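Regression report. Comparing outputs from two consecutive submissions.

Submission 1:
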Amino acid sequence: THLESDTLLVSPLEVLSFLESFSKHPLATSTNIMADAKEPEKDLKKLEEEQAKEDAALLANLEKESKEFDKDSEIDRIMKAFRANAYDVLDLQPGVPDEDIKKTYRKKSLLIHPDKSSNHYAPDAFDRLAAAHQTLLDEKARGRLDEAIADARMLLIRERKLTTDSEEVKDPDIEFMKAWKEKVKFVLAEAEQRRQRQMKAQMQEEGRLQRKEDEEIQARKRKREEAERWEKTRDDRIGNWRDFAAGKGGKAGGAGGGTKKKKMKTLG
């Protein structure tokens, strides 16, 4: 019919030929169609992997910078701490057990170790940390430090006209703790000055005693040398005396031929 002729625009042979040619095209196969679908997935995965690497590198860099900041901050804190107060250097409170002292020292010494830090203050800070550690592990040295800290507390209490039962003393605030810390510096500084004066006086006394001993040694040496000289000239002195005695006897004999005896008178 006319309708059928209008509907069938192409013949069946042409449709079949088109399908055959389409199936032969490389983009038309199912494998290639799936491969094309996976290409965006590969690109996305690769992009995600690259982004993950960049993020990891960034985090590692930030972590490194953070560690360096921590190192520098700790080194700065140690250098600003009052060197004579070992607790201050180690950032510890008085009365802590030895185990805490050892743990804190190990942690901080690893953090600021000169071999792991480019900070030029690291060696000095490390030495100060080690000295503070040794002080707190030395029973006598730690005892002296604890005594100074206790003295500083009592001085502060007296200055503020408080008692050990005062609330400000029992439950000290930040201001009281800071004032106490400053008073500890004062007490330790005075103790150091006193130690220096005592050392100077001791050195002077030792010097005086040494000079006295040297003088005594020199006096004994001179006396010994004089005795040696006297002993060396002994034979000469004896010989001279003999010569003198012989000469004197010869003179007396030549004058009178000898000594003339007096005649004794008989009484009666």
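Submission 2:
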Amino acid sequence: MLDKSKRGKAGFTLIELMIVIIIVGVLAAAAVPIYTGFVKRAYLTEAKAVVGAIRAAELVYFAEHDEWLADDATATPARTTEDVLATIGV
């Protein structure tokens, strides 16, 4: 059995645990905006890549058909952008 001198020194005190929780909270508060910025930049990079692929597909279509792909208002089902992208494998 523990004597009185060793019994009080085992484990962490409530103050020590509260300090650790505060430190973790401060670090999390600083990390969340940084993480959010990374996520936004990743979405922007992905969007730029998709737009670049669409642009390349439209340029290929123009080179093959000597006309631009019609917009959705005048497109027939066989001439939508999605069909052209699927045709050229993008």
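Expected: both submissions complete independently.
Actual: both completed, but the second showed a warning that disappeared on reload.
Relevant detail on submission 2: Helices lie at 4-7, 14-65, 81-88.
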